[in-house]
Design goal:
By secondary structure, this protein is mainly α. 79% of the residues lie in helices and 0% in strands. The chain is built from 21 helices and no strands.
Length: 517
């Protein structure tokens, strides 16, 4: 209860300060962890992987722009697969050469743990300051897929560390193919079954319950066949999002969407507070190092990880543009160096990395203690803290300094779509009015045609006067709805209607007002 209250208070403060709420929540959790007698809340890896991760992935996949995801699949793959592999190998080399307590194999495990990014903070910044849309699309696509590749690398790393056996290239490729293909297949299968079932339900609360079950079903089914539960959830979420227009009634869609917005916010908030609260547990496991040495290790390693991402970005962006133009024949422009730098600066780590670190075994395959485990957990926590707080807080300034703030693109596509839809409706009404001989029905057509004509005027390029008239009509309509609402409340307060009637009429007013807003 305390954590939920903290999430609400800090998120409210973050909105006032125009600061991404994940950053303030981590800092708040970190500060609270130093307060004496505060109950300690350890982060159970199972809590993250089995409880938090499936719905968070599902919500992200649901809100993903599928067309942009499909178009950018090469760039996303270079980030989610190529960058993860590059990070894992380079961290292993750095650890083997410069960190006395780690060898190549334990460094490989460390690289696998910290290779995955968390784009929640970056996405919230993007919505606030207006990052270029293709940067946002790449960030969201990367965060959906790289959890799977990072966890596969961790599987290989633990296998080398615990058994001493290095997987062959053939086995690694086969495992990757099954991880991706099996995960996508399971996710789509679950999505098809649920979509078929969902079309036969027209009840908001039932749809909510089903929507909660779906991500856990996809995740556990994918994990059960030793494929990627992460990709199963992503594939299922993408498919369900595409089917939602036909699967839900308008009322059910409003209820389910509102419910998931609240659930997604609550889970994300709890996750970031829990990250900050883990400092006492992380420090308690470290022995033989002074505080100064630990700070130096954490700062230098975080800097190395940030540098590795930036080093990958520029040649990766150039190769992606070349491949898409020459091989896929896509008409794309190469990203500017400013956009590439911003994409490199948004490599923030989150709860998946920390949960992966905490889930590392405490003993080797032969029973010897895993002596490097606590140092790996500490370095992971340091990377999360530095990338979230330092990079997260500096990102708005970096974006503004590079001149990328507020350049998310025009809404020409949306305006064209609105115009086409309204023109189709106007033609339908004109045809219907010309075909009817009933006077009352004709008046109904005229009223609707007048309303839709005003809406169509807003989409006209040379119709400023008509658009102003339409805006006036919308303002007057909102005022009329408010008058209706006050009258409804007076009827309820006087006892003329009961609460059930009040709620039904209030829902109609809410929908009407939302349409006019």
């Amino acid at each position: 209860m305390f954590l939920l209250l903290l999430v609400v208070l800090i998120a409210s403060l973050a909105r006032r300060l125009r600061t991404p709420y994940p950053i303030l929540l981590v800092v708040a959790g970190l500060g609270i962890s130093f307060v004496p007698h505060v109950p300690r809340v350890p982060l159970d890896p199972n809590l993250v992987f089995l409880i938090f991760l499936p719905p968070l992935l599902y919500a992200s996949a649901w809100n993903t722009n599928w067309r942009a995801f499909r178009r950018n699949i090469v760039s996303i793959s270079l980030l989610a697969v190529g960058l993860v592999a590059f990070t894992v190998v380079m961290v292993a080399e750095v650890a083997d050469r410069f960190i006395t307590a780690l060898d190549w194999k334990s460094g490989f495990v460390l690289g696998a743990v910290v290779a995955t990014t968390d784009a929640v903070a970056a996405s919230s910044i993007a919505k606030t300051i207006g990052l270029p849309q293709r940067v946002v699309d790449l960030l969201e696509g990367e965060s959906l897929v790289n959890d799977a590749t990072g966890l596969l690398a961790l599987e290989f790393g633990l296998g080398m560390l615990l058994t001493g056996e290095t997987p062959t290239l053939g086995y690694g490729l086969l495992r990757l193919v099954w991880l991706i293909g099996g995960g996508l297949g399971v996710g789509l299968a679950v999505g098809y079954v649920v979509a078929w079932f969902g079309r036969r339900i027209d009840d908001g609360p039932l749809q909510m319950v089903v929507s909660i079950i779906v991500p856990y079903t996809a995740y556990l089914a994918g994990d059960g066949v030793r494929a990627s539960g992460v990709l199963a959830v992503v594939a299922c979420g993408l498919h369900m999002s595409r089917q939602s227009g036909e699967m839900f009634s308008p009322e059910a869609r409003i209820q389910v969407t509102s419910f998931w917005k609240a659930l997604d916010f609550m889970l994300n908030g709890l996750v970031f507070v829990l990250i900050g609260l883990q400092l006492p547990y992380v420090l308690a496991g470290i022995e033989g190092y002074s505080r100064v040495t630990l700070v130096e290790y954490g700062a230098v390693f975080s800097g190395v990880l940030i540098l590795l991402r930036l080093v990958w970005m520029f040649p990766g962006a150039a190769f992606s543009a070349w491949f898409r133009r020459r091989v896929l024949k896509q008409r794309v422009t190469k990203a500017s160096s400013r956009e590439v730098f911003v994409l490199g600066w948004t490599g923030m780590r989150g709860v998946v990395a920390l949960a992966a670190a905490i889930s590392l075994p405490e003993a080797m395959g032969d029973g010897r203690p895993f002596a490097q485990r606590n140092l790996i957990v500490f370095l992971t926590f340091s990377v999360i803290l530095v990338t979230l707080v330092v990079q997260g807080l500096s990102l708005p300034a970096v974006v503004r300094a590079l001149g990328l703030a507020g350049v998310s693109g025009s809404n020409d596509e949306e305006v064209a779509a609105r115009k086409t839809i309204l023109q189709t409706v106007v033609k339908h009404l004109e045809d219907g009015m010309g075909a009817t001989a009933d006077e009352s029905e004709r008046h109904g057509y005229e009223d609707l045609l007048h309303a839709y004509s005003h809406r169509l005027a807003e989409c006209g390029e040379d119709a400023q006067d008509q658009a102003e008239d339409a805006r006036t009509m919308r303002r007057l309509g909102l005022e009329a709805v408010q008058v209706e609402r006050q009258a409804l409340i007076r009827l309820r307060e006087s006892g003329a209607i009961d609460d059930d009637v009040m709620r039904r009429l209030e829902m109609e007013l809410d929908l009407n007002e939302a349409g006019k807003g």
